[in-house]
Amino acid sequence: MTADKHTGGPARTVPWLIVARLVIVVGCTVGAFWNLWRELIEDVQQGADIGYVFALPVLAVLATIGMALRRRPELPIYDRQTDIIVGLIGLVATALLIGLLVLRYPYEYEALHLDLLAATFFAISVSVLLFGLRPVFRFWPVGLLMLLTVVPMPYRLVVASLGGNRIADGAVMLIPAAAAAAIAAGRTRVRAIAGALVALVAGSVVLAAMAVWFPHAPLIAYQLIPALVGAYTATTVMYLDHRRWTSLRPLDRPFLPPTAARSRAAALTALIAAALLALIPVPEEYVVHAPQIAGLRLADSPTVAPGWQLVGERVYPWAPKYFGRGNSWTRQSWQAVRGNPAWDKESRRRRLAVDIVTTKTLHGLDNYREFTMYRLDQPRISPPVRIELGHGVQARLNTVVDDRQLLSWTWLTWTWKGESGDYQRISLIAADNHLPDATFPQPEPSVTRLLDNQMHQILRGNAVVLNPESDEGDPDSEHKDRDMLTAVAREIVRIGAGE
Predict the structure, then answer these.
(1) Structure pTM?
(2) What are phi and psi of 376, to 5 degrees?
(3) CA proximity to 135, closest of 261, 273, 26
(4) Is 106 exposed, middle or buried (0-12, 13-18, 19+ CB in 10 A)?
(5) C-alpha to C-alpha distances, 453 to 7, 381, 464, nearest whole angstrom
(6) Residues 6+ apart with CB under 8 A from 342
């Protein structure tokens, strides 16, 4: 009674055991994936959209605090052997995810970033080791929120559907912010809905203010500020409302001790696992070689090569949503003016599909790799052949086979940079079928198509190859239209260089 009178509340002590365990979880996660965090920071500094992931841990912390404040006394029932077994299974699953998916399919690394999913699994597994399975499972909504939002492909597709601009990025991030507020305030279903609505309203107000007064703010500002302000406002308002706005002291109750007993083996296991995972590098980055040619002015389409004529053109309106405002994707159809027996034994006039993607930065080309943007069923891509086109431009030649449609194409691609600083990827596609009605792959951005190709790669192994940079394809592939495509490409480069 005397203590309560002088302190104004029950006696409290700092929960050093909980703090120490949290420090180990955070430290191990940061150390185990230090290559990933460094890669993300570099990408954000270069203007990439991956910076949204830095808001997710903060949202998870807010949601976790809200759930922790609703904690009630628990029975001291635990099984440390079960905790360690489940934690070890999670750590093994993390290693398998990195080794079998992240490192095996580096071509889709920037698009999928499955190592972010692996980092989430790792943090959950270490938490199970240190805190126990039952206490960690109490926070399953927070883990589910992280698992559903940490992979960037769904986020990017929703942003693209909303217009692909900064406002769309900020608006999409209000969804996980509202979910985090709902989890934190979810004592009842009504309070959860109220928390989500407050987060949406507060975040929308901040987003509108930024759009009016700071329209040119960095992309990461649009991704982080509205979402975090909205979630923090909602959790604070709902917390004070629960206390009838009479107390601002968050720690006016004693901390309940953790139910899981101390285990040096669990802590040591976490540290060893972090040290081993830290040795795994991120997948080798495919650096796009884009030489800058003096005097090259990039238009939506290059000049038609001599001996060819333009017979069709189509501009895809969805390109700015995926690659950013001011970017474009144009498909042209070229036909030879006259037949050439070296390209067709019957001297038929060959046709080409010419795809031109013009972007402000290379990040769009990294996020949406070339062969993930086409309607291809169970594709196999040959190892690359490097061809010098002159003026420092190097092209990549592949043969692409679609097993389901029984079609094949020869594909020549290069990227260059104009004097304005814009980048352009040009793909020349020749069909193995020389008839006028030959079928060419159609650009089609679809997450269903991407996941379908990914599953085919996982289930069929080397029978399905989507990586044009890989040497694991068929080494005996025959590039039937290599001479024709090389001749056309060198004319395009020669004209672009001003010769």
Answers:
(1) 0.82
(2) -125, 135
(3) 261
(4) middle
(5) 64, 12, 8
(6) 483, 484
Angle at 327 between CA 321 and CA 328, to 5 degrees: 90
Residues 6+ away with beta carbon under 8 Å from 421: 360
For 43, how many CA atoms within 13 A lie in the half-sphere containing its CB?
22
What secondary structure letter does DSSP report for 263?
Answer: -
Please tell me the distance from the alpha carbon of residue 469 to that of residue 475, in angstroms, as a whole number. 13
CA angle 432, 486, 319 (to 5 degrees): 75
* Phi, psi for residue 331 in degrees, rounded to 5: -110, 120
- Ranges of H-type helices in 350-412: 363-367
Q: Could you say which DSSP state residue 101 is in?
A: I
Q: Say whether 178 sits in a helix, a strand or coil.
A: helix
* Residue length of the chain: 499
> Which residues does residue 381 pair with via DSSP β-bridges, in sequence order?
400
Kindly list the averaged pLDDT for each block of 10 residues, start to end, along the chain of length 499: 42 69 93 92 86 95 88 67 89 90 79 90 94 88 94 86 88 96 91 95 96 92 96 91 70 63 83 92 69 71 86 88 81 92 89 91 76 77 88 89 84 87 90 88 72 63 64 68 93 83
Q: How far apart are CA 147 and CA 58, in angstroms?
A: 15
Alpha helix (H) residue ranges in 214-263: 219-242
Q: In this structure, are residues 489 and 412 in contact, taking their beta carbons and an 8 Å threshold?
A: yes
- 294: alpha, beta or left, given left = phi > 0 and alpha = psi -120 to 50? beta
3-state DSSP: the chain helix, strand, coil percent, rounded to 5?
50, 15, 35
